[in-house]
Specification:
Length: about 270
């Protein structure tokens, strides 16, 4: 962005511009989306080669029927149990690793129940001091057609003590966990609002650059008329500017379409 600013604006304003000035400005601007694509391809390559979760027992969500849980939640959220660790993957793909052994390791599972109805509300993973390390909402993980199998697999694989404990739920039984100390974690391990999910999973959201597609596209648009120049360096600048716009907007379009047409739509009912 700095290269574009210096070569396109400063040199152009001072009448020092040439076809090479525009070419350098276009290259500098093209590096912005080009590096985005390069980093994403590199990350995908590393993900394919990553064997750290090989052999894990995987517990996936089984939402209560009629809940309209999203495909993003159903396909992404998971609890993976390794010999030494428990790996939690939330709805947006974030990972959290918790040890199974040691001072802070998980030593028990506590099923939280409604004192009036006796219905299961959630599950806490607790360490040796009794502190909760993980909170899963029952209706999203164990209340669906495959919920019983999920619960049995979790208990059998962890092999820890299991008990029930009454809790005082909130007025809304679907959000009883909001006053829990792990409410933020429980929310991330539950379906996320579609608009929020799209915003937080954009490739540049973590860098705080959500305005990047608009800014880069506008800057590139200023260089695109060089495509009609008689000088080949200027034509290269125009071509790079057009390619920059295409890359920026295609990533935004692909992200929006994947979210709206697939990831954030309700899944079909499970088969028992």
């Amino acid at each position: 962005m700095l290269v574009w600013f210096v070569f396109f604006l400063v040199f152009a304003v001072t009448d020092s511009a040439s076809e090479w000035t525009f070419a350098v400005a276009a290259v500098g601007l093209f590096i912005v989306p080009g590096s985005d694509v390069a980093v994403r391809l590199l990350q995908r390559s590393r993900d394919r080669q990553d064997t750290s979760l090989t052999g894990a027992t995987v517990v996936v969500p089984s939402p209560v029927e009629g809940s309209r849980a999203t495909r993003r939640f159903h396909d992404t959220a998971a609890v993976r149990i390794l010999p030494r660790d428990i790996v939690l993957t939330d709805t947006l793909g974030g990972e959290r690793w918790i040890a199974r052994g040691g001072a802070s390791g998980v030593t028990s599972l506590v099923r939280l129940t409604d004192p009036k109805s006796g219905a299961a509300l959630g599950v806490e993973f607790r360490d040796g001091t009794g502190a909760a390390r993980v909170l899963l909402v029952w209706r999203w993980w164990f209340a669906g057609p495959r919920g019983r199998e999920n619960w049995a697999e979790l208990v059998n694989t962890l092999g820890v003590q299991v008990s029930d404990e009454n809790v005082r739920p909130a007025k809304d039984p679907d959000s009883w966990w909001q006053n829990h100390e792990l409410a933020a974690d429980a929310r991330m391990m539950s379906p996320i609002d579609a608009k929020e999910a799209r915003s937080r999973t954009r490739w540049n959201a973590s860098a705080g650059r959500t305005a990047e597609p608009l800014i880069v596209s506008v800057f590139a648009l200023l260089l695109s008329p060089q495509l009609a120049s008689e000088h080949w360096p200027a034509r290269v600048a125009g071509a790079l500017a057009v390619l920059t716009i295409v890359i920026e907007l295609s990533q935004v379009l692909a992200h929006e379409l994947a979210s709206r047409l697939q990831l954030d739509r309700p899944v079909l009912p499970e088969s028992p």
